[in-house]
Amino acid sequence: MILHLAIFLCTLVAMEGVGFLAHKYVMHGPGWFLHRSHHEPHLGVVETNDVYLLVLALVAITLIVLGNAGHDPLQWIGAGVAAFGIIYVLVHDGIVHRHWPVRPKPRHPYLRRLYQAHLMHHAVKGRRNSVSFGFLYAPPVRVIKRQLREMRESEARVEDRRQGDFLDEARG
Ligand SMILES: [Zn+2]
Ligand SMILES: [Zn+2]
């Protein structure tokens, strides 16, 4: 039982890492066409981004079914994946984006930090140069602010260089 609980908790923690990587390199990478709906003004209750949640649910269910069919301890890994999904929906959809009729205000410092960090993720338009890809852990707000500033500065440098090249070409 202790071992199972440990597997469950480890999966939950590991899922934050998986989520971070998936958000940064898949959702803001080749999977942007699905995630994009989440970075645009809302049109309806569901968005194409929910496909990712569906995939998460399928993975969790498959693991739980396999575990219950005798492949112990897959059901505990599945439970960890499911718990991550549930917490994500509660925190991300409920508290940060307030998609629900009841709109809880984040009072707890931890929730406030998640809230602010995720708003900064949404402060960057488009898929590139974003910050704060985590869901259940966020670095301190000042760290994210610095990252955001550095991103903007490097983007401005690239733009300057582009304009410089253009002028050079125009001058011939
Ligand atoms: Zn995003
Ligand atoms: Zn969001």
From TrEMBL:
Pfam families: FA_hydroxylase. InterPro entries: BETA-OHASE-like, Fatty_acid_hydroxylase. The keyword Ligase does not apply. GO terms for biological process: carotene metabolic process; xanthophyll biosynthetic process. The keyword Oxidoreductase applies. It comes from the Bacteria. GO terms for molecular function: beta-carotene 3-hydroxylase activity; iron ion binding. Belongs to the sterol desaturase family. This is Beta-carotene hydroxylase. It comes from Pseudomonas bharatica CSV86.
